[in-house]
Every structure is written in C-alpha cells, then in structure tokens.
Amino acid sequence: MADPDRTRVFDGVGVALVTLFDHDQSVDVAATADLAVRLVDEGVRAVLVAGSTGEASALEAHERRSLVGAVRRRVPDEVPVIAGTGAPSARQAARLTAEAFDAGADAALVLSPPRAADPRPYYAAVADAVGEVPLRAYHFPVVSAPGIAVDVLGDLPVVGVKDSSGDPGRLLEALTTFDGDLYVGSSAILTQAGALGATGAILALANSHPEDCIAAFGGDPAAQLRLAPHHLAMAPFPRGIKAQVASRWGTGTVARLH
Fold it and tell me: Catalytic residue at 123?
C-alpha cells in the first residue's frame, strides 16, 4: 500500500486520461503514458487513469495496474496520479483501490455503485478495507445511477468528490454544504465552477483542449465558449473524445467500448 502522505490534493484542471489501444485492442501503455506527459507539459495539474473516459469497465485488473504504474513513472512527482477504482460491489472496489495504490497511485476516485439508493455502506466498506488512504467519491449518474445525493456527501469517508453531472444547481448546493474538495467533471460549467470556488476540474476534454479548459476554469468566458462545440462533439462516447484527441495529437482512435 502506498504511503498516505503521497496522496496529494490538487487544485486547477486535471485530465481524465483516455486509454489508448493498438489496432488489436490491446492496451498501448507506452502511448497512453506519453499522452499523459504531453498533457502535463500543457499545464494539467493531475492525471486520472482508468476512469470512465479511460474505458475502465473494459480494462482487466492487470491492465489497470500497468497503466497506473507507467503514468506514475513518467509524469513529474509533483503531479498526482489518481486511479479510478469504482465497481458494482464494495468488495471489487476495495480490491481495485488497494491494487491501484500498490501500483503507485497517489489517490483513488471511487465511482458510486449502480442502483444503490444509499451509497454510504459501500464507501464505508471500501474505506475500511484500504485503511488510512484518503478517497474521493465520484458522482456520475449517467454512468452509474442514481449517484450520490448532495446531503449524503458529508457522511462519506472521503476527502473530496468529483461531480460530472454538469448541474449548476447541484454545484451551488454542494459548494455551500460540503466541506471537502469539489472537482467538476463537466467542461460545460468550468467558468462558473472556478468563479464560485470549486477546488478544480477533472475533464475528458482536457485530453484534446487542455489550454482552453485551464483558461475557462480560470475565468475566461471566451475559452468557455470555444469549448462548447468540442464538449458537444464528445458523443458518442468514447469515440467522440478519441477522435478529438487523435485530431489534436495524432493518437489512435481504437476503442473497446462502442
């Protein structure tokens, strides 16, 4: 298990890194790590590996470990590497979280379980299983409904949350009731989130447009508007975002999810 002191909080914009695949759909670990380095050079402050943008549900456990280890070795020490470790059951999530820290992750982002009206037992079980390593919850009801009610966030054994709902009303509620770190996952509300004091953002669109994501979170409305057509073009997922990444950086477009 990694030293808990390595689990860093970051502020600003991080990237929800796409996973790159070879033509035969095998994971291209080197190319994925290369992309992470390039995006850090462009100014992203953290790298999320094996999140929903990284087609986590299509990755084997050993592939997740390889990706986390490779990215951690390649990006500078001061840039936190966050592993996506959510799963349908707490038992699975606990195992993925422990393996991610063993592979070198600095933090874990744990997607809420599907069909769980009350996610508190799930997060309590994951926290109990992995010990004193801070966790971050992940609210993304489009991927794993129903997600996490705002009034439950304070009851979870987590130090922060990523909210990819893109709901401005929920953002306001969370900012005024939740004491932990709050990261938005929607590139549609960056300027608002930054102006209101959100800790940061963890974004799929930062794979292809990191500069405008950073500028929009920093308060540039022109950058927010420039992102609008690219935000809409991320669908169908994940092919939409992979096409944008390929157009910007010349990476492959192979996906396991269709």
Answer: no
